[in-house]
Amino acid sequence: MLGKEEIAKRIAQELQDGWYVNLGIGIPTLVANYIPEGIDVTLQSENGLLGMGPFPKEENIDADLINAGKQTITTMPGSVFFDSSDSFAMIRAGKVQLTVLGAMEVDQSGDIANWKIPGKMVKGMGGAMDLVASAENIIVAMMHTNRAGESKLLKKCSLPLTGVNCVTKVVTNLAVLEVKNGAFHLLERAPGVTVEEIQKATEGELIISGEIPEMKL
Amino acid sequence: MEHQPTLELVQEVELIGHNKKHKMKKVVKNAEEAIAGIESGMTLMLGGFGLCGIPEKCIETLSKKPKITDLTCISNNAGVDDFGLGLLLKNHQIKKMISSYVGENAEFERQMLSGELEVELTPQGTLAEKCRAGGAGIPAFFTPAGYGTEIAEGKETREYKGKMYILEESLVSDYSIVKAWKGDTKGNLIFKATARNFNPVMAMAGTITIAEVEHLVEPGELDPNEIHTPGIFVHRIFEGKNYEKRIEQKTISK
Fold it and tell me: Structural domain boundaries of chain B?
């Protein structure tokens, strides 16, 4: 089974040279720590920055320089600032090649829910609805099951949706799955996790074809 | 709109320390003068993302006028309990919020769940485009954001080249209040780093736009190549003192 850092590490393997990438809050943010050597990836922060750098040293903190998670950050050589409408122009027009975000639920048709639990929690969608409606590659980073042990990979999402038919891949603590043709296709197992365990933790339709390799981290 | 704000409210104020004959119609002394004319029931746009780039001086001054109530506030976030728009929420000056993310404010959540506060959650990019379009004379636009979700309920949908879109209407405000790094007496503005965020598009969409700036300079001191918001969008401007610029999530690298 993978920890959060290892999920991030596995997702980082999906990155390609020259890509602009938007990383959501939580596990997705950690992906920035594992960008493979020798490839050039530019991180987009939807509050208005391309070329997000690491967190600052204490002496370099700037209240005017934060990421979409409201954390203090730094720029890189070649960074650029822009306003919120330009930021979502590049997102909506598909200039950002990959979006990685967390979810409460994902279903086999690629629908995602991550912004509201009726009667319990309403924090808002922020930029998530714009991101999932537009990016070509949308990878969800999350635990395979919730705290109650119930599957988060469902036949049909039960919570209010963030977007429809949009998730292309899911990386969990148990597996890597592709979402296509109305089903989850098992691509890789986490080290030490069996296909049976993944099947048991997946409520949606799971396609298992041939030998399923173990992830290489 | 019930209240039509007028530009006549702007006083002619002499710029202290500068040519006394040179009257600057846009320059006001302070936040107090800048917000003159804001009345109960009006719609305000307030720039900022989280607490970054919020017009903290005007918000603080509004919070000292508790008789101004029933405001509709368009702002990406709602501040925190004791800073930014949280101050107006605490005073029950806000009737309705139009925002994309409100997760950092306990009082906000309480008022929303109890029904005291009306909240229209709007995807962040749609919110930005609603302001930009409003400021650009465009009444509505199609966006894919929110298609198939409850955001799309009751809205016109249309297919273009095989993809589905929803029709969103643009927004304008009675007063837009923005915060810039530098500004000149003609209202031209330059923002700093990610404190730019919603400020330029909200400046465009104001019937009256108020800019509070850290450094107010004379015309000619800003390089025309580097101005983000042309002064035509700004009606009142003043230099704020002692900005707190509170940080929500201080994160440092070890």
Answer: 24-138+171-239
Distance CA A152, CA B200 (A): 40
pTM attached to this predicted model: 0.94
List the single residue in B126, B149, B196 with the smallest CB-CB distance to A48.
Answer: B196
Cβ within 8 Å, pair B193-A65: yes
CA distance A189 to A88: 35
Q: Identify the band that residue A207 occupies on the pLDDT scale cut at 50, 70 and 90.
A: very high
Where do we find the tokens 């365990």? A197
Alpha-carbon span A57 to A44, nearest angstrom: 21
Any B CB within 8 A of A117 CB: no
Q: Where are the beta strands (DSSP E) in chain B?
A: 13-14, 23-24, 43-46, 71-74, 94-99, 118-121, 140-143, 157-160, 163-169, 173-184, 189-190, 206-217, 236-239
For chain A, list the domains and their CATH numbers.
Answer: 4-207 (3.40.1080.10)
Of A61, A92, A163, the CB nearest to B125: A92
Q: In whole angstroms, what is the distance from residue B112 CA to residue B96 CA?
A: 10
Of the candidates A46, A105, A188, A203, the residue annotated as catalytic is A46
The verdict on a CB contact (< 8 Å) between B131 and A85 is: yes
CA B181 vs. chain centroid, Å, equals 15
Shortest Cα distance from A136 to chain B (angstroms)?
13
Whole-number Å distance between alpha carbons of A125 and A102: 12
Q: Tell me if A85 and B104 make a contact (CB, 8 A cut-off).
A: no
Cβ contact A84–B51 (<8 Å): no
Per-residue pLDDT, B61: 98
A45 reaches B (C-beta below 8 A) = yes
Q: Is A46 a catalytic residue?
A: yes
pLDDT digits (tens, 9 = 90+) for A170-181: 999 999 999 999
Closest CA to B177 of B198, B148, B147, B194: B198
State the fold for domain B24-138+171-239.
Answer: Glutaconate Coenzyme A-transferase (3.40.1080)
Determine, for residues A160 and B124 on separate chains, whether the beta-carbon distance falls below 8 Å. no
- Complex ipTM: 0.96
- Averaged pLDDT in 10-residue chunks for chain B of 254 residues: 49 45 79 98 98 98 98 96 95 97 84 91 98 98 98 98 97 98 98 98 98 98 98 98 95 88
